[in-house]
Design goal:
Layout lengths: L1 E2 L4 E2 L11 E2 L1 E2 L6 H8 L6 H16 L5 E5 L5 H6 L6 E3 L5 H11 L6 E5 L1 H8 L9 E6 L6 E5 L5 E6 L4 H7 L7 H5 L13 E3 L1
Parallel strand pairs: 1-5, 4-6, 7-9
Antiparallel strand pairs: 2-3, 5-6, 7-8, 9-10, 10-11
Length: 204
């Protein structure tokens, strides 16, 4: 996020020469002094502008995203930050990459256009951290393409997981009940042994 200052300061540097830049915020809770620094002036640096940026940074970092507040007047500032140069005030991400990935997959529930019904054996397997293989698929409904988010349901039509599918619906229909080694001979190509890889599955 770009602003008219080099980053977040302990005080407003335009009116206080003793103001020091805050290089990073790594704690789970943003320290009170950071909030005070952001909202303690009426010059434009604080209330409104910087306070809003810190609230946005806190929200983003809790979803697994590193955030940097820096000056928009720095030459090539975004490229330099992306390439590792230390500029502005950084907010360290609080969620792991895997947790962030899960949140991303779950966000696809609202637009999920397909269901994969699986047997009891497959349900047990994915609950133990395994991938969903075609042999465990009983039926497919809806419409989806490779890379879409789909619901995984059991034989009682209860939601048990959601995941990013490796194959489109027509391909999955052709693979129902087949072993992984039959995928290439059945379809003429393969995107992997799994209908949904375990890294792309989130249990509900």
């Amino acid at each position: 996020m770009l602003t008219d200052q080099k980053g977040l300061f302990t005080k407003d540097p335009r009116i206080d020469q003793n103001a020091e830049m805050i290089n990073s915020v790594e704690s789970t809770q943003i320290p009170q002094e950071v909030w005070t620094a952001a909202g303690g002036t009426v010059t434009g640096l604080g209330t409104g502008g910087m306070m809003t940026k810190i609230k946005a940074a806190d929200l983003a970092r809790r979803s697994g995203t590193k955030v940097v507040i820096a000056s928009g007047t720095e030459k090539d500032v975004i490229q330099r930050i992306v390439h590792g140069e230390v500029l502005g005030t950084s907010f360290t991400e609080l969620e792991s990459n895997s947790e962030s990935r899960k949140r991303y997959i779950l966000s696809g529930l609202k637009t999920s256009a397909g269901n994969i019904c699986i047997d009891a054996g497959a349900a047990k397997a994915i609950h133990h951290g395994n991938s969903l293989l075609p042999v465990g698929v009983k039926s497919v409904t809806g419409h989806f393409e490779r890379g879409d988010t789909v619901r995984v349901v059991n034989m009682a039509n209860e939601d048990i997981a959601v995941g990013v599918i490796n194959y489109g619906i027509d391909d999955v229909k052709s693979l129902v009940g087949k072993r992984s080694e039959e995928i290439e001979t059945t379809l003429g190509f393969t995107f992997g042994d799994e209908v949904i890889h375990r890294n792309n599955l989130v249990l509900l």
